[in-house]
Amino acid sequence: MDDDNFPFTSSSPLKNNEGELPVNVRDDFCYINIALHSTGVWGYEEARSFLQHTLPRVQLQLAIIFMLTQSLHLLLRRFHLPRLVSEIMAGIILGPTILGQIPKIQGTLFPPEGEVYLDLLSKIGYIFFIFLSGVKMDPRTVLRTGVKAWSIGVLAAMTPITAGMILTQKNQDKINKYRWPAYKSIIGIQSLFPFPVIASLLVDLKIMNSELGRLALASALISDFVSNFIATFISYGRLGQMGFAGSIMLHSTFLSSCLILFILFVGRPLCLWIIQKTPEGKPISRFHVVLMSLLVLVVVLLTDNVGLNYQYGPFLLGLAVPDGPPLGATLVDRLETLIAGLLAPLLVTCCGMKVNLVELFDLQFIAGVWLVLLVCFLMKLAAIFLPALVCRVPIRDSAALAFTMSAQGIVHMSFYYYNSVNQTFDGETFSMLTMSVLLQAATSNLIVKSLYDYSRMYTGYQKRDIQHTSPKSELRVLSCAHRLDDVLAAKNILEASFPTKESPLAIYALHLVELIGRTHPQLIDHQLGQKSSSGNRTQKMIEILYSFEQQYSGVVIVQQFTAMSLRKFMHHDICTLAFNKLASLIILPFHRKWNHQGKMIMDSSSLRTINSSVLDLAPCSVSILVDRHKARRNPLSTYNVGVAFFGGNDDREALAYGRRMAQSPSVNLTVTRFVPWDIYVGDSQWDAVLDAEILKDTRMQGANQDNIVYREERVKDGAETALLVHAMEEAFDLIMVGRRHNDDTPQLLGLSEWNDLPELGPIGDMLSAPDLSTPVSVLVVQHQTLKNK
């Protein structure tokens, strides 16, 4: 047969002595001409079908997957379903179950020859996802966790593994030998407790900073280490039992040890060198980010050649990277959006695209798979629920903890996919396992959300405010700070509260630090000698309040804490500490900051969100301090405080705090009551009675004290009120106002329409305007919102 009929092959004998091929002799080779780039729709006729070219087709595939996933998530998140459910469902829709029933569309958009590119991108995304998960984990947390987390974590990991080994030994003869590897792999994967999956679930449920969330994170971290260690030990033990595999076990152990040594003595020193080369307070350079990404790929290459699953190397390298700034924080900041937002979820969607729910043949085996999954799931629940009960965790919280730690996610999907590629699982088994991940992710999320309501812990919490705190009793205040300026401003307010031996002041100072490059939130109690890792800034804040405690020794008690968490969960730390310490008032810093010249230097929307969340959830009264540096006080001079009183619960709380300040002879209190022309319009009858009572007490106190002035101003509407309030700006160092008022309050008529900051109310919003020419410090007070049982 003539070779010219085969343009891609040729015969290839040896070359002659001069290195040349004889005539009519060529090397054997095979190649394929891959159409990578499209020539455009204006070219040849065959070029107009751009889907025949690799790059445009991959781009279209990514666009379709991303748009479908986001659309499903926008719909399903209303039913409190996690993003993982949307990713799997998007894959099922694009796979043979639905889109595959239309062969022409399926073959055009997702042809078999194009799967390799999506598979490659998804694996790269998953590799960096696992690496970032290791970066955000702090292995030292395992040593700092309590007995409760250790007990739950170790038992949760060992019980399913032990039970699985017993079941496999007893039932090995009852299962077909061709099906046996699949059953064994399913039991092994079900015994895992991947920390990234549990952390993602807690973030979705917004309970990471709750007591349950902290316990779940600590227990999951321990379970993850224990389960992986046991699984590795068992694997090497099985190799050692095989007579012909002894050398393989020694060889694999040696290479695995070399990989760990490479990470410890090459990867870790490289990370420390990068940190040393980075100026203090600055992120690492782009070159160093690229260098670390290259190191991740090198470690993956070594891990795969050692014989381990390719995900273990990047995870160990991530653990070796120092968490937090500058290295860990910058890596997470630069890579998180692309990896966690697009490439890593691509693995889940690709797994969903391989699910075929139409062609199922061995129904008896499928039933066996579901039975094994159910038994493993129940064992995991029992292994977590029972130790939690023994550790005196409430029943509802124990159940929520069990479902949280039993959840499945992207890590399980990667192991299922890995076994599918190795042909341990056939198509039917892989489809059922993928569906089990979808069901467990959905049910775990819904069950935990119904069992554990974070706000429920405040239900029935009664009378924790200033009005019902006796003037001759201890006042407990929680002061929150993000910056050094926040501590200085709060210190002056607390100093004006006039602590005495008869009415001491207990201050719980919470320094809020954003968690960057870490997963595990921390609440550091400085009374126990714990140190903060957030640098000199927190230490200066601590020293200011300690000096304040020494200045008022015997009448002021200061306890300081540092909360390191994500900003969207900081309000949980604030409310939890206020609840545990029985605080009567929370002082929050305003989200806008001004310098000494009156120029606004910061306007943080995230801090505003924190304040709004605290106002909704707080178990006590809350105040927001708008500091324009006019609140700075000289101990030798008088401190002028004004209260704008319109009526209502919040105004009464502000007045109660002002009256407590007025016990100090260095504080001059002026109470201005704004009275409508029609005195019978406005507040309800009961509010009017309570207003009259507290104003009567204020006038009586003013009759005995020269530093209290009470006056009334009759106004028609909000315009006249605004003129009088602006007139107060020059006269006072601090103006105190209530946040909420009735909608039909005539004194505020028209002001609500211009209210840009609802969390401050109409008066507070007016006094905190960024373009206000006269600097004035304002304390906006909200009375405790009582919750019904």
TrEMBL record:
Chain ranges of the Cation/H(+) antiporter central domain: 505-630
Alphabetic keyword roster: Ion transport, Membrane, Potassium, Potassium transport, Transmembrane, Transmembrane helix, Transport
One annotated GO biological process: proton transmembrane transport
Membrane topology label: Multi-pass membrane protein
Annotated Cation/H(+) antiporter C-terminal domain residues: 640-785
InterPro entries in the cross-refs: Cation/H_exchanger_TM, CHX17_2nd, CHX17_C, CPA2_transporter, Na+/solute_symporter_sf
TM stretches of this protein: 58-76, 88-105, 117-135, 147-168, 180-203, 215-234, 254-275, 287-308, 363-386
Annotated Gene Ontology cellular component terms: endomembrane system; membrane
Compartment(s) where it occurs, according to its Swiss-Prot or TrEMBL record: Membrane
Pfam families named in the record: CHX17_2nd, CHX17_C, Na_H_Exchanger
Entries under Gene3D superfamilies matching the protein: 1.20.1530.20, 3.40.50.12370
Domain Cation/H+ exchanger transmembrane: residue ranges: 71-441
Source organism superkingdom: Eukaryota
Entry GO MF terms: antiporter activity
Similarity annotation: Belongs to the monovalent cation:proton antiporter 2 (CPA2) transporter (TC 2.A.37) family. CHX (TC 2.A.37.4) subfamily.
Name of the molecule in the record: Cation/H+ exchanger domain-containing protein
Source organism: Buddleja alternifolia
